[in-house]
Amino acid sequence: MRRFLHIAVLLLLCGGVLHAQDTRKQESRKARLEKEIAEINRQLKENSRSSSRALTDLSLVRRKISARQELISESDREIHALNDSMRVRQKEIDRLQARHDTLTLYYNRLVRSAYKNRDSRIWYMYILGSENIGQAARRFSYLKGFSREMSTQARRIQETTATLEVEKQRLAQMKDEAESIRRQRQADVESLRSEENESSNLVAQLQKDRRKYQRDLEKKNREVEALNREIAAIIRKATAAKKKGATTSSSKSTAKGGKSTSTEVDEKLSADFAANKGRLPWPASGTVIDSYGQHYHPVYKNVKLPFNNGVTLAVAKGSQARAVFDGTVAQIVVIAGYGQCVLVQHGSYFTFYCKLKSVSVKAGEKVRTGQVLGTVDTISGEDQLHFQLWKDREPQDPERWLK
């Protein structure tokens, strides 16, 4: 019996491992979404509900709504998968139960037959009453087979019973898990309704004083356009200087009959940077509130915003900006509305980190992946990091590069 218990435990463990492997990806996605929602809640809690921050709060709330909707969809997928698994498990239980019933019925017949002939003398007389040795051997073989069949049936019943118990326990676990997910989903749906109301209230607040927000928007647009011009000019100078240096180095190397060492290093760094597309670390922990590309105002739908060459992250107060890859600090500048900005060159690629209060590196310094470049500033009551990524003179969508 102990052996059958070991088999049952092994089956249960195997089932648990397989289920864990099937659900690991879903749990990872849910954990990421829950972490993002918790981070947004923390940022909203830190924000004062002033009119100057209403637009940022609206971006955060809408981002949270999107994450919440995805979380609910993830729960729906989990519940659907569990329902499918439970149907399969129930069919297996029904099959095992039918097998168990058949085995038990057959075993009971064997037991009744054995009971009727339970006196061992009857068995001996049955063999001794044979007409010849051949018949005695056949009768002995029959009786031996009968005994073996009873033992085999008993073992099969025990094995089936153990497996059936494992399947029932697993089904019970699935039902508990599905019920837990349903309760959490219901809580998420209620939170979503609350967040949608919060978003509507913020939109109403923004629409209430349209003239003021338009003035703020015009100022921000001028700052964005100035930033884009400044960064484009800086990168033009950097790429021109790099090409000039490469040409000069190449000329000197040709006179000596050799190759340019510095150009090779740039090419290798560029190749290493490109090879890590989609795997670069984020420059700070936070929530994307303004993504790359052309967008319209979230409230005044007919107002086109300036093209965003990067991403803006809402971060915790005092957050640090970190280099996303090895490189060299090309320049540190101050831009109106964006505080101190650090430009890091990675061969043919450039990364820009803006809205810094203090900078912990200097121009010409080599930096490593994850190295602190500076501390994010609080500008107009907002803690944000603006980040851009360029390939030569072409801005890139940072979210395609960052993991």
Structure report:
The protein is an alpha+beta fold. It has two domains: 2-208, Helix Hairpins (Orthogonal Bundle); 210-400, Glucose Permease (Domain IIA) (Distorted Sandwich). It contains six helices and eleven strands. The protein has helices spanning 2-46, 54-116, 120-128, 133-208, 210-256, 261-275; strands at residues 286-290, 310-315, 320-322, 327-335, 339-346, 349-359, 366-367, 372-376, 378-379, 382-391, 394-396. Strands 1, 2, 3, 4, 5, 6, 7, 8, 9, 10 and 11 form an eleven-stranded antiparallel β-sheet that branches. Strand 10 and strand 11 form a beta hairpin. Helix 1 (2-46) runs antiparallel to helix 2 (54-116), helix 1 packs parallel to helix 4 and helix 2 packs antiparallel against helix 4. It is elongated. The two termini are 53 Å apart.
Number of helices: 6
Oligomer: single chain
CATH fold label of the largest domain: Helix Hairpins
CATH class placement of the largest domain: Mainly Alpha
Q: What's the story with the biggest beta sheet?
A: 11 strands, antiparallel
- Provide mean pLDDT, rounded: 77
Helix fraction by DSSP (H/I, runs of at least 4): 55-70%
The portion of residues forming beta strands comes to 15-25%
* Global shape: elongated
Gap between N and C termini, in Å? 53 Å
The assigned CATH architecture of the largest domain is Orthogonal Bundle
Low-confidence stretches: 118-128, 247-263
Structural class by secondary-structure content: alpha+beta
* N-to-C order of helices and strands: HHHHHHEEEEEEEEEEE
Could you tell me the number of beta strands?
11
Count of individual domains: 2
Task: Report the radius of gyration as a whole number of Å.
Answer: 36 Å
